[in-house]
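Hey, quick one: can you model this chain's 3D structure?
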Amino acid sequence: MSDMGNGHTRAILSAAALFGLFLAGCDCAGPATGSACESDLDCASTDRCVDRVCVARADASGDPTDAGPGRPDTGPGRDADLEDRDAGPCREVSGESTVEAVPVDIIIAIDNSGSMSEEAAEVRRNINEFARIIGESGLDYRVVLISTPTGSRGVCVDPPLGSGAPECRSGPDGRLLALHVGVASRNAPNLVLSNYPMYRDFLRFEAAKVFVWITDDESGTFTADSFRAALEALEPSGMFRRSIHNAIVGFYGDTPATWSTTSAGACASLARVGAIYLRLANCLMDDGTPIADCTSGRQARVCETDWTPIFTDIARGVVEGVPVECDFAVPEPPMGQTIDFSMVGVTWRSGGTEVMPLGRVDGLGACTADGWYYDDPAAPTTIVLCPELCRAVQADPDARMDIALGCFGILD
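Sure thing. Here's the predicted structure for all 412 residues.
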């Protein structure tokens, strides 16, 4: 999945910690001969599933060397004792989902220069809706706002995110840190870096960092590449290893080739095209080369008159873009059993009802909306839900994940 792991707080479904699991060992006897079945897993260890009916193995037709699904091949060169080993369900793990929210720290820098009065008003009007959308998604968020709070071009955040005038500080939840610093036309990146000691302790190391750049001008000092390098150099090392940039800036066309093409679109109020911020948002190096393993943000024109759709789109982009991870340890099999990893099943239930069939995929790159995979196919220790499935499970307050282990008896 993403690199939010390795010391980060993640949205984890953990068999040991976050699920509050109960373990139920079973005798692996399975339903009686004659019961309906889909595979050998649904039958007693002495039976096989033939034409969807459990049949005593002695009566089952077919190739005697075919061990059937979930059973090791037999035949020449195999120990005869292996022929009757069955990978039936030998243990289940299930529990209620108590998924922790993924933390995200949002850093907003807004240009307070003379041409930004209307833009500042739009920020003031939309920032609480922006926070509401993110909060309702279940994300644990904080906001750092770099802007002067006074005057027509300043931003003082009203409740509930902020306190409103005259203090212009945080609201009661403590989610806002307002740095009362005036931002000029071209120095927003400089101020994000130089004021870092003022907000470093407010950030969470494990949180994704989301930037929102708001200006009708261009950076006067940093390029996209040099700013990324400066962020990476900040201590503690790795604080900004997962950063997502969003740019509300001036541009004409929607593509890199047409950002500065005046005939490609309308944006009359810009001072300069914000190409550096756009490269940050689109995960592009200075020369236009895409950056691998980089999550793109959103871009919007600063000259729009109604910013409600802009802030809504960015908020939804934050929800979609912040990496999430759902994983849980493969449970231990009962004593005298060993796991057949090809026969492990994972089921998502909501209120006792199966939501959808889930299937194992080969890894993150092969993920589907209903898929899960092993951390290490050769020696699995962890079951990981694919990102889309993970988000769906997180949004289900009645989610329960059931894991059925397929096991073989250990031979003496």
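One thing worth noting: Residues 16 and 364 are 23 Å apart (CA to CA).
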